[in-house]
C-alpha cells in the first residue's frame, strides 16, 4: 500500500472514532480499540481532558460508556489533522472542535449547547483487521495561540 493510501486509511480510522462517539455506538467504539492480545504488555490508555490516565481496555471502555450515558448530544469538527506513520504505528494529532448539549430541560428539549476546543493525540496500531486505537490523549485548549495576538499588532 502506498504511503498516501496508508495515511488515508489512518485518517479514516481516526474519523470513525469520532463519528462513533457522535452516534453513541458503544459496540462499534469497542471494536475500534486494540484488544488485549493486540495491545501486548502495555495495554491501551486514554486521557480525557481533566481526567487521570486510564489504563487497560476495561477501564478505558468503561469511561466511554459513562461519557455516552451522560452526554445527550455531541458533535466533533476536526481541524489541523496530521498523520505520521512509522512502521505499524500511526500518530494522529488534531484539534477537536466540540459542540455538546447539556441535560434536557423540563420541557424535554436539549439543554444549552456548549463549545469546547481540545487538542488530541491518537495513536493507532496496524492489525490484520486494519488500524486500531492504542491510545487517546485529549487536552483542553485554555489559551489562544500567539497567531491571533500577532494579527492585532
Automatic annotation (TrEMBL):
Q: Which residues form the SnoaL-like domain?
A: 10-141
Q: Which domain of life is it from?
A: Bacteria
| Pfam families xref list | SnoaL_3
Q: Where are the transmembrane segments?
A: none
Task: Please name the SUPFAM superfamilies in this protein's record.
Answer: NTF2-like
Question: Coiled coil where?
Answer: none
Q: What is this protein called?
A: SnoaL-like domain-containing protein
Q: Which organism is it from?
A: Streptomyces hundungensis
Amino acid at each position: 500500500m502506498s504511503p498516501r493510501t496508508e495515511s488515508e486509511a489512518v485518517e479514516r480510522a481516526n474519523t470513525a472514532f469520532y463519528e462513533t462517539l457522535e452516534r453513541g455506538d458503544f459496540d462499534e467504539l469497542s471494536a475500534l480499540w486494540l484488544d488485549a492480545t493486540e495491545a501486548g504488555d502495555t495495554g491501551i490508555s486514554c486521557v480525557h481532558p481533566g481526567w487521570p490516565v486510564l489504563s487497560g481496555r476495561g477501564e478505558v471502555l468503561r469511561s466511554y460508556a459513562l461519557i455516552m450515558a451522560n452526554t445527550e448530544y455531541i458533535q466533533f469538527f476536526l481541524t489541523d489533522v496530521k498523520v505520521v506513520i512509522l512502521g505499524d504505528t500511526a500518530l494522529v494529532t488534531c484539534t477537536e472542535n466540540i459542540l455538546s448539549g447539556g441535560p434536557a430541560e423540563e420541557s424535554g428539549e436539549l439543554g444549552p449547547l456548549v463549545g469546547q476546543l481540545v487538542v488530541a493525540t491518537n495513536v493507532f496500531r496496524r492489525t490484520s483487521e486494519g488500524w486500531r486505537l492504542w491510545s487517546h490523549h485529549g487536552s483542553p485548549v485554555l489559551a489562544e495561540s500567539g497567531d491571533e495576538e500577532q494579527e492585532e499588532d
